[in-house]
Amino acid sequence: MAKGGFKVMDSDIHVDEPHDLWDRYLEPRFKDRAPRFAAIDGSHMNGWQFEGKVFPAFFDRPERRRLGRVRREKARARHLATGRYKDPAEDLPGDDPHAMLKAMDREGIDLAIVFRTRGAHLIALDGLEPGLSAAMCRAFNNWLSEFCATDRARLKPAAILPLHDPKLAVEEAQRSVRELGAVAVVLSNHPVNGRAWYDPAYEPLWAEAERLGVPVAFHGIQMAYQEHLGRRFMDNFVMAHAVAHPLEQMMALGSLLTGGVFERFPRLKAAFLEGSCSWVPWWLWTLDERVEKFGDDERFHLTMRPSEYAARHFYFGIVRDPVALQMRDLLPAHRLMWGSDFPHSVTSFPRSGEWLETIFAGVPEELRRCILIENPCRFFGLDAGCPITPTPA
To answer: Which of 193, 49, 197, 31 is nearest to 118 (CA)?
Structure first.
């Protein structure tokens, strides 16, 4: 299991939600509004349909469906070249916990933090009724808890929250951590209902995360029916995807740091996942300079520079970012974590082990250990020394 004599944690693995998840798990009073997976009008494709919208977002537009097809074809060609589809039995799905554990065994991964896929897309809808948003999150979190129960030592759930109403988000955070075993709560990178992350409406959520001792993980999606940079590039998926994660993360990070969130909540921990992090040194320098020159000291009381708050409170995830390790002396390397992004199209599966050897070439073993097991264990509050064995087939 262990790589190089130490364990490996995947800080960003994903499920692929089954088509009947919300039919089975949504509470009775919302059953008639459950998302459906069905044919998209005017096309030969299926998609999720919820509250009058098609998901992935805007897939009722021909140009978006065309780009979706290009993405799938490119991913398949790339994965065929690395051996992913040589044996159909080895094309392991994300809706089966046994398949996920098998993929982890194959890649030498000891334990993983398990994140949503479509669960985030379906609630990424401004104006969504808060009660329905909360019910959607409860249904998903209940299903995910059962998914991870297959091997709770190796699969750790990350709960989604109904951010349309921060009070309901607090309730779901409490339930997910205390009753379902969630080790993190997941937030979007982009705004929900137009609120900045320093908005006072979120203060109860930050306070509750501190009380629960649970970290918040910011993890974006590539498009949304919300204020989202990807919407500028409906006809260019390369740009839509390239800006969706890192640039949205830069704005969210800046919002939290310059808005004084960590001054008011000094025990809060946060991470940004799947957005790479080569941009971090320049962005923190920029925020430091802008606060020095333009900071609104009356509204946002800061006692440190943004970069100093970041060094205390933030972790950053890498999936495929060799530049980050090449410039590790400029980064908070003691705050980096690796994630495979399995089973999504950007994953290196089934060659993640080889990819790790490539990007870690020349990296000291101590830093490897930090990134692959010690840093994520510290962030998610897990014991790096606990014994872990492969799950029996």
So the answer is: 49
Contact 197, 256 (CB under 8 A): yes
242, exposed or middle or buried, with CB in 10 Å at 0-12, 13-18, 19+? middle
**Structure tokens given for 343:** 């089973």
pLDDT tens-digit readout, 289-342: 999 999 999 999 999 999 999 999 999 999 888 888 888 888 888 899 999 998
First to last CA, the chain: 15
Would the pTM count as exceeding 0.90?
yes
Instruction: Write the DSSP assignment of 153-185 as a string of letters.
Output: TTEEEEEE--TTSHHHHHHHHHHHHHHH--SEE
The Cα–Cα gap between 336 and 377 comes to 11
DSSP-assigned beta bridge partners for residue 217: 186, 271
Length of the chain: 393
Report, as ranges of residue numbers, the positions in the chain whose pLDDT lies below 70.
1-6, 79, 83-91, 386-393
Kindly provide the residue ranges of all beta strands, DSSP E only, lying in the chain, ordered along the sequence. 9-14, 36-39, 46-50, 53-55, 111-115, 155-160, 184-187, 216-219, 270-273, 314-318, 336-338
- Give the model confidence (pLDDT) of 5-34 as tens digits: 568 999 999 999 999 999 999 999 999 999
Closest CA to 117 of 55, 60, 163, 193: 55
Alpha carbon distance 190, 205 (integer Å) = 17
Give φ, ψ of 13 to 5 degrees: -110, 155
